[in-house]
Amino acid sequence: MAMALAAAQIEAQRLSATMQPTLGWLYCTEAYVNQAESLLADARQRWPGVAWVGASAVGICASGVEYFDEPALTLMLADLPVEQFRLFSGAQALGRWDAGLAQVHTDGSTPELQELLTELAGQTRSGYLFGGIASGRRQAVHLADGVWTGGISGVAYSAELSGKQSGMRIVSRVSQGCQPLGPERIITACDGHLVTRLDDLPALECLLQDLALPVLTEPANLREAVPRLRRTLAGINPGAASGSPAQRGNYGAEVLVRHLVGVDPQRRGVAVAQRVEVGQGLSFCERNPAAAKRDLLRICTELRSEAEDTAPEDGSPAIAGAIYISCAGRGGPHFGAPSAEAQWVRHGLGDVPLVGMFAGGEIAHASLHSYTGVLTVFMRN
Predict the structure, then answer these.
(1) Pairing mode, if any, of strands 99-107 and 124-134?
(2) Which candidate in 47, 62, 136, 347 could, as Cys together with 140 as Cys, close a disulfide (CB 3.0–4.6 Å)?
(3) Phi-psi bin for 361: left (phi > 0), alpha (psi -120 to 50), beta?
């Protein structure tokens, strides 16, 4: 029934009877994971010749609306030339095909996931990936002309679609969801996941300074600090240059937000959920709905403006469609109202076809992100 309702809406929106879809996206909530094979078979029967990609998640989104923890699915169809995309599963599946960029869905339990993403990005001309980790409270799957658990799958797009040479191009942006609490400092000493010195100062003292907390010398001080420490995250900037630290401000797409996993009072260090290296930048941060909203509206405005600047003169919409992958910890509930995030995207980007999911981790460039939104649009030239 859900597929029939969604299909009826799709058919009502077909621009013309001559449109022949070739690529489709299907996102569903966890309630339909056990029916994923049947849903895919149904979609293939309704639209013969369409290649399908997608995933399941705790929440999904369509144009202006979000569905969390309830049975739901969302569909989008495109009529891209078949030579401009290729579905894949596994990091080596692209072979010698000339990919410009790729959309990726994956499972969070996949071993060495970051290494797989780096390898896959290296098989594209731009080195750019976008997508997310299928999310679920018990189970999750991802789709690429089949239903997969574990590993990675998705769709690669030709180099033509990563430039302005063809009639369509793909442009993607990352919206951060955290606000720095203090300046970015350079990691000057570390050991694996443990950061011991920032700007040649003890990392733990830098953290306490940014949080305006007392030195953790007494048990009472530690108990007082725990609730605040649990809310604190670390923004890691892999490409930070040594020198004076950056001023407090909003994060760019290059920053990777990671959890704090502990403090070491003896070594006066802070442990983060990622291996770090000397020379990287690090700033402490917290999730901030207001900052997230500002950044989301910023990237929507940038994408809409760019699309309108290069829109075709025949009057067709500048943006043909969009895919939005946000963090499962975001969405309307985080922003205080149902479907708030999806409505902001619709307000900033315009009333364009859009599908997506709330992921267990977001993928942009060749990296895993947290608490971000990754918005990708198909622009007509």
Answers:
(1) parallel
(2) 136
(3) left
For residue 87, the number of C-alpha atoms closer than 13 Å in the C-beta half-sphere is 16
- 96 burial type by CB count under 10 A (0-12 exposed, 13-18 middle, 19+ buried): exposed
For 267, phi and psi rounded to 5 degrees?
-95, 0
- DSSP letter string, 181-244: SS--EEEEEEETTEEEEETTEEHHHHHHHHHT---TTSHHHHHHHHHHHHH-EEEEETTPPSSS
**How many residues in the chain?**
381
Tokens of 168: 């369509």
The residue behind tokens 């569905």 is 67
User: pLDDT of 279-336, one tens digit each?
Assistant: 999 999 999 999 999 999 999 999 999 999 888 887 788 999 999 999 999 988 888 8
Per the DSSP assignment, residues forming a β-bridge with 379 are 169, 319
State pTM to two decimals: 0.91
Q: Which residue has the tokens 């010398």?
A: 217
Q: Which of 52-56, 165-169, 203-207, 352-356 comes out lowest in average pLDDT? A: 165-169
Tell me how crowded residue 31 is: count the other CB atoms within 10 A of its CB: 16
